[in-house]
Write a structure and sequence with these properties.
Length: 141
């Protein structure tokens, strides 16, 4: 097999180019696709890394109609909202987001928050679906 045709079985986030997310709700974040349909020919899973800026880096509330998501915090701290629940998260925490469940996350500590995310059942964001949803204030109820 020619090296240009070799599948990338091992990747490193720090050596992976940033995704082009200009013009999206993620434009201010460092997003890198590590495993997926386009990169390795995956059919059932997509893995990426997102780095949130310190002290308030966040992204919009959204859901994936056709994929579950797992988020693994590898550095920093912040919060993750899943449905009506808000959780404090930090290094080593793992968050499960069921299919079709609204969620959002953000960093609120003095350092960047790094996460790995896994979409299960979909090898691309197009396959997972992405629906922006309004965030409802659950603190005033």
């Amino acid at each position: 097999m020619d090296s240009e045709d070799a599948v990338e079985y091992v990747v490193r986030a720090d050596l992976t180019p940033r995704d082009d997310v200009a013009g999206t709700a993620f434009a201010h974040l460092d997003v890198r696709t590590l495993v997926g349909a386009d990169r390795q020919g995956s059919t059932q899973v997509m893995v990426g890394q997102t780095i949130y800026p310190a002290d308030g880096g966040t992204h919009e509330h959204h859901l994936h109609p056709d994929a579950e998501e797992v988020v693994i915090v590898t550095r920093g701290s912040g919060w993750h909202r899943v449905g009506d629940h808000v959780f404090r998260i930090s290094d080593g925490d793992v968050v499960f987001v069921p299919r079709n469940t609204a969620h959002s996350a953000g960093a609120d500590g003095p350092e960047e928050m790094h996460i790995l995310w896994v979409l299960g059942g979909a090898a691309s964001l197009a396959m997972a679906g992405y629906v922006s949803v309004p965030e409802i204030d659950i603190t005033s109820s």
